[in-house]
Amino acid sequence: MQLFENMLLLLALAVLLLQVSRRMSLPYPSMLALAGAVAGLLPWAPQVSIEPHLALVLFIAPALLDAAYDTSPRELVRNWLPLTALVVVAVLLTTAAVAWVGWAHGGLPLAAAITLGAIVAPPDAVAGTTVMQNFRIPRRTLSIINGESLLNDAVALLIFGAAAAAAMTPHLAISSQLPILAASVPAGALLGYLLGKAFVHLAPIVAGTMSATIVEFVMTFGAWLIAEHLKISPIIAVVVFGMTVARYFPSRSNARDRVHSYAVWGAAVFALNVLAFLLMGLQARNIIAQLSGQARMDALAFAGAVLGTVIVVRLAWVLAYGTVIRALHPAFERLGVEVPVAPKRVGVLVGWSGMRGLVTLATAFALPADFPGRDTIVLAAFAVVLGTLVLQGLTLGPLIKRLGIQPDHSLEHELASARTRLVDAALQVLEGQETHKPGVAEVIQELRADRRALSNPAEASTVTELDEARLQALRSQRRLLHELRASGEIEDDVFHVIEEELDWAELNASAAAQARIASV
After folding, report:
1. Could you write out the three-class secondary structure of 227-288?
2. What is the pLDDT of residues 116-169, one digit of tens each?
3. How far apart are the first and last CA of the chain?
4. pTM for the full predicted model
């Protein structure tokens, strides 16, 4: 009960911090990290532990699905070289550097030190993209960071699994795990693809019901659990499952299910972040409380050394990679190979955007109680998450301003082009029907106004004005609807049906119009 009460308090605090982060353009994971640290300092906070295998499936499966659903396979292929540099090389370099620090200075066994390296190696894109989107940095850079966040989780978790198994079984060498991993990756990909296709065919059967969202949860966690029982990679299974669903599901789903799905998964991932930071703060407090004197100072110094190593290795590698690519770019052009070349200032931004988050926390939780050096590893992991989210996350916005990176408006241009084609398709169907179908003429008039605004940005206010008129009318209808229910002229069931109709109509209006109406 005490844990539940503290969870509710932290959720309430997280809501307040989220509003602060929105108004100040700060990444909300940074605020959650601070909240978790504060929660760990509360004297009445409970003693909490979580079963290791539960930690992995509970925290990582939804995070992987969320990232996989938003990842474009086309962009992964297009950006294969920078992604390889970040996903493979950067993860391996960070793991190796941290493992050396843990083995040489932290007194950890080699396998446990490698486990620590794998835990802190993968950055979390949420904090970085939250800030970067506000500054309209190049879309390709955002795409690379999002792709990195998904794939480096998979690479780091594979290393984590092999190293953790070797640490718990001293006679088992890490190298002996490599053939098993090599076989489990394609098997996991095949399982994820098959389950994704099965979900796509099952979804229309439960479409429009509450079962639709439940099936998504069952299939996501089921993909992980089935892979575990089959002794293949659950990480790859969930990643491929998510990408398969993202590719084939939208064309077979309905609007209501999509809106519900986005809302439920967004809230679930946010709540899991809150719970993870709470648990990490409580565990870090318990570890520090068990230490005293010089032992505590040594543990904190080691955690600081790991934090510094993580930041320096990523920044150094990204800058070195950028320097080499710029030098070799003429050779790539002669070979006809497209390789994105970012300015040095963008490289500095990418190198500084290596905040750690949910995956690092979850893998630290997944260590069993008798794992060699567990307390040292958990404390170091929390220091890396807290340090990167506070130090890097809170300075990312000022750094973007300082670097003077020019805003990228390609998203707006591409949106306008796509919307123009959609309007043209609608006009092609409706034109010629206005003479014998009531109401069609008015719809065509609005579509033509939208078309003029999209083709001429100077007239873009026309679309907003139309949407504002729609929203003003809807607001008047809502007032009358509430009056009808209050007076007893309609019952609640009628009220809710019409309320839903008005909600869908409101969603059709543009975000700009909604913002302007809200300020009136």
Report:
1. HHHCCCCHHHHHHHHHHHHHHHCHHHCCHHHHHHHHHHHHHHHHHHHHHHHHHHHHHHHHHH
2. 999 999 988 776 676 677 677 888 888 888 888 878 888 888 889 888 888 887
3. 44
4. 0.80
